[in-house]
Amino acid sequence: MTDENRRITRGKFLARGAAFAFAAAVTGPGLTILSGCGGGSSSSGPLTFMQFYGPGGEVSAQSKWFEDAVNGWNKENETKIDLQYVPSQEYISGTKLQTAFSAGEGPDVFIISPGDFLKYYNGGVLEEISQYMDQKAIDDFYPSVMATRSVDGKVYALPMEVEPLVMYYSVKAFEEAGLSEADIPTTWDQLLDVSGRLKKGDRFGVLFETVPGYYQNFTWYPFMWMGGGGAVSPDGNSSDFDSKGSIQALQFWQDSIEQGVAPRQVLGSGGGDPIANLTEGFCAIQNCGIWGVADLRANAPDFEYGVFKLPVPPGGEYTSDLGGWAFVANSKGKNPEAAGQFCAWALGSMSQESVGRMVDWCTEAKSDIAPRKSVQEEADKKGAYDSGAMKIFREEAFPGARSEPRYPPEVYKPISDAIQACQLDGADATQQAQRGAQSIETFLESYSGAEIL
Amino acid sequence: MSVNPATQTPKKSREPEGKPRRRRLSRKHSEWLAAALFIAPDGIGFLLFLGIPILLSLGLGFFQVSGFGGYAFVGLANYKRMFVDPLFIKSMTVTLIYVVVFVGGVFAASLGLALLVRQKMPFVGILRSAFFVPHVVSLVVIGVVWQFMLIPQRGVVNQFLEAVGIGSVSWLGRSELALATVLVVSIWVWMGYYMIIFLSGLQDIPREYYDAAKVDGARSWQVFRNVTWPLLKPTSFFVLLVSTVTGVAGVQAFDLIYVMTQGGPANSTALSIFYVYEQAFQFNDYGYAAAIASFLVLVLLIATAGMFLLTKGGRFEVD
To answer: Which end of chain B is less congested by CB atoms within 10 angstroms, N or C?
Structure first.
């Protein structure tokens, strides 16, 4: 073959180029689309369980618990389940879960907190789980915990834990300030006073969450409730956010900043991170949930700390906020029935296996109060709440506490704006509460979803 | 145009008898076809991954979208809502402040740096690299590092301020400072990139003009004002245009704000692009988010057209 014959002509080059471009244009996106369709939309194959614990999650014991639960199900059932891990920050504050649903590729099983319940329930993607449970098992869950996970008596989310909020304190900081257990504050005024005495050098006296978001609202709600405040009136038609209780709670958080005893910024992953804030000496007292016990046990086992229940305002009544994540099944997933059965099997059965699994979660993998009476009894028998911080959680913080509310975004956002404006921008608490109440009422006028609790 | 008979004749003789002669494209058409084929991969990619999504997004603004597959046509309701939504108005105000300060700041800083590193001095290459490096680092990493540096009382910035007697400041915890802080970081990230663009513009200015100015006894400021500045105007226009687009679209600011402030405190750093994100992915209101995004595109088009008109397409009065 001569060079002349081997040389490509302009015509051949253009023809081959056109063929290549056409092939690339058709097959490239085509394959992408096809590959996109091949995953979650297929009606066969294992169900997906999206969450932020495992496999390969941040805490090995928690990751293992999830793996064991799924392996146990997979051994006994034809419909298999695959764990799909998403880092917690991305799962809670990111777009992964939401965009999966928007694309029609939502996971078959996933976990939500009460704050997200209405978003998914009103979106029509939550499978009723109580249809796969015995009445005895349904009754085994604490009513206060289930209120925000049920609609018209039907259960749509099964909680795996109950997480009350308290105040953690550093024993060393207390001792340095000449304080003892007798000085533990029980009122808001005392808390500000003690925090002022604990403030020293680059250490703040007390720490509340400062980053706007669902978590900050979650930590602020008990302060609102303790003075009798609320966001949505019991009849669901108006807002009582401009009540005295809400205003004084907004004012209290503002006072903690203006008096210089609380920081305007928090360290690490935020106000729920005692390792970055409390153990590092950034603050002496920290508002945080029960998960802090497991965090401290795993990451700062030698750190000496104590906990006390949330102080109350003048004339107020103690309460706390019971957070916690719950299993839910996707009613528009590959196999809603199997997904719902899995949730009931894992957390909502009276079998010893199910009860034992929840005891393990609440006492070993994590440090939580149990959402079920039988589980709590078993955990009590194990002595998990006999001493230290867990004893205070069990005996003082949990009784009287109420479930995290299920406020939709349109209710959450005005409250968040009011908290931020008062806490960090020095705004007038009364004006902010009135503005928030007005926004919430405007939304309620056209709201038609499940009851806001 | 001359034709080489030596190349034409043998071709004719090679064509088989009786076979109809294949019609050839004219040179002009061949060039057009070649150009189209070269552009096609990018064009198809643009159409599939940007063009069609942009059109869909524009359409989405006329619907109420649940995020779970529910669509309801609402006409202009999302657009009407925008103008009575105090948070949207606030986000536009924050965006306006951000764009004005960012564009002005990054322009001045990058031009100053370009003039500095154009000088003949030792280690100028290292200096240029040092100014450019922030631009190639992940914005998430930059956000986290600055957040650490700005921690009240403990961060390196506040420790320095305390050492010189100013005292600790909560840069990201005060609504009156947070946006300014994010702006400083944004300018720091981008000034190296625009410095390189200005540097190439400066190097395009013929040396003879400077020599002539020197012979005429012009001082440094006079040289800058009468030689550098007028001849740098096309480059300046490019920098102004691109930095305005990135500022309004919030391309670089979103990551920083997401990591450093989450839009707070009290929405003081919630740019419009952050508000779009919040509406779409936190509140599931895709229709409203799409309407805001469309409005931002319109603002951007008007701003860009205005800049083109004012500067005669970047040529200013040069022509």
So the answer is: N
Q: Which residue type sits at A436?
A: G
CA atoms within 13 A on the CB side of A37: 6
Bridge partners, B65 (sequence order)? B71
Interface residue ranges in chain A relative to chain B, Cβ cutoff 8 Å: 10-11, 14, 17-18, 21, 24-25, 29, 94-95, 98-99, 101-102, 104, 119-120, 123-125, 201-202, 210-213, 263-265, 267, 282, 332, 409-410, 413, 417, 420-421, 423-425, 427
Calpha distance B131→A359 (Å, rounded) = 56
Q: Domain limits of chain A? A: 47-162+324-391, 163-322+408-446
Residues β-bridged to residue A326? A112, A159
Q: Chain B, 23-62: which have a CB under 8 Å from a chain A CB?
A: 24, 30, 33-34, 37, 40-41, 44, 48
pLDDT band at A44 (very low <50, low <70, confident <90, very high): low
pLDDT value for B10 = 47
Tens digit of pLDDT for each residue in A403-420? Answer: 999 999 899 999 999 999
Between the alpha carbon of residue B94 and those of residues A415, B82, B183, the distances in Å are 21, 15, 11
Which domains are seen in chain B, by residue range?
A: 97-270 (1.10.3720.10)
pLDDT of A173 > 90? The answer is yes
3-class DSSP assignment, residue A400: coil
Amino acid at B16: P
In this prediction, residue B252 carries a pLDDT of: 74
Tokens 């966001």 label which residue? A231
Measured between CA atoms, the residue of chain A closest to residue B34 is: A14
B152, B267, B283 member nearest A420 (Cβ): B267
All residues of chain A having their beta carbon less than 8 Å from the beta carbon of residue B168 are 202
pTM > 0.80: yes or no: yes
Select the residue from B68, B147, B274, B285 to test the A interface by mutation, using most A Cβ atoms within 10 A.
Answer: B68
For residue A25, the chain B residue with the least C-alpha distance is B44
pLDDT digits (tens, 9 = 90+) for A235-261: 888 999 999 999 999 999 999 999 999
pLDDT band at A361 (very low <50, low <70, confident <90, very high): very high
pLDDT at B317: 55
The per-residue pLDDT of chain A, averaged, comes to 89
Q: Any idea which architecture A163-322+408-446 has in CATH?
A: 3-Layer(aba) Sandwich (3.40)
Cβ of B68 and A263 within 8 Å? no
Phi-psi region of A153 (alpha: psi -120 to 50; beta: other; left: phi over 0): left
All residues at 6 or more sequence positions from B304 whose CB lies less than 8 Å from its CB, including other chains: B241, B244, B245
- Report d(CA B63, CA B291) in Å as an integer: 9
Looking at residue B104, what is its pLDDT? Answer: 96
In this prediction the ipTM stands at 0.79
CA–CA dist B97, A332 (Å, integer): 45
Give residue A58's pLDDT.
83
Q: Is B64 on the interface with A (CB under 8 A)?
A: no
**A140 CB-near residues (< 8 Å, 6+ apart):** A350, A372, A373, A374, A375
CATH architecture of the region A47-162+324-391:
3-Layer(aba) Sandwich (3.40)
The reply to whether A47-162+324-391 and A163-322+408-446 are identical in fold is yes
- Using a CB-CB cut-off of 8 Å, the residues of chain B touching A427 are 266
Whether A431 has a pLDDT exceeding 80, the answer reads yes
Q: How many CB pairs under 8 A join A and B?
A: 101
Closest to A288 in 3D by CA, of A304, A305, A313, A301 = A305
CB contact (8 A) between residue A417 and residue B266: yes
- For residue A266, pLDDT over 90 is answered with yes
Low-confidence stretches of chain B (pLDDT < 70) are 1-22, 313-319
